[in-house]
Amino acid sequence: MAAERAPAPPDESWVADLAGDGPATPLALQRLHEILLRASRHQVWRLRDLLPGAGVGELEDLAQQAADDALVAVLRQLAGFQGRSRFTTWAYKFAVFHAGSAVRRQAWRRREVPLPDSIAVVDRAPTPEDITEAAQLARAVEAAIQTALTPHQRRVALAVLVEEVPIDVLAERLGTTRNALYKTLHDARHRLRSALAATGQLDTISDRSLP
């Protein structure tokens, strides 16, 4: 008969044991790591199609790495736990995030991260009447990207939105943070909206279509 798993401690015990340095701390760290490893392993296997050819050993290494990173992140953010959900549910999210990041980084490890400076309209020839408006809009967006954005905003926006580079991968390659890139994208979106408004294109493009 399989041994029953010990019940999880209450949230207050988790926080107290992890934040302290008493005899209960090592066991709390071990139990938390086990929880994070189960979560990260589940997420890595869920995303395994992003890593064709990856064996069980490689996937397990990624899960272990993600669990280790998640444990560090949980301890760093421990003071921010507000009890709005169970502690284990709160911690689980760290494992899922770090596992996803680990898989995406591994998937892009052997790929060049494109940082284009421009976006090309595929066909500049006269178009049939039913797509004329779309062609005009495409040219307006291309012009706005070239003239309204800074070089850094343009490269980041095109890499994330056109080349579909995962933002955490791009942050790693550029030596910056996800938050910094999100701020760059936010500023680029604002500039694009202003540029398209100035040319009257906001009548034909919805807010959600912008980066």
Any descriptors?
211 residues; 2 domains; disordered C terminus; mainly alpha; Arc Repressor Mutant, subunit A; Rna Polymerase Sigma Factor, Chain: A; 0% strand; elongated
Q: Share of helix among residues? A: 55-70%
Count of extended strands: 0
Low-confidence stretches: 204-211
CATH class value of the largest domain: Mainly Alpha
Mean pLDDT: 80
Radius of gyration: 23 Å
Query: Helical segment tally?
Result: 8
Distance between the termini: 56 Å
Which architecture name of the largest domain does CATH use?
A: Orthogonal Bundle
How many domains in all?
2
Strand content: under 5%
Query: What letter string, H or E per element, gives the SSE order?
Result: HHHHHHHH
Class based on secondary structure composition and strand pairing: mainly alpha
Main sheet characteristics: none
Q: If you consult CATH, what is the topology of the largest domain?
A: Rna Polymerase Sigma Factor, Chain: A
Explain the overall architecture.
By secondary structure, the protein is an all-alpha fold. The chain folds into two domains: 11-108, Rna Polymerase Sigma Factor, Chain: A; 129-209, Arc Repressor Mutant, subunit A, CATH 1.10.10.10. 63% of the residues lie in helices and 0% in strands. It contains eight helices and no strands. It has helices spanning 11-19, 25-46, 56-76, 87-108, 132-148, 151-162, 167-174, 178-198. The longest helix is centred in the N-terminal third of the chain and has 22 residues, at 25-46. Residues 204-211 have low confidence and may be disordered.
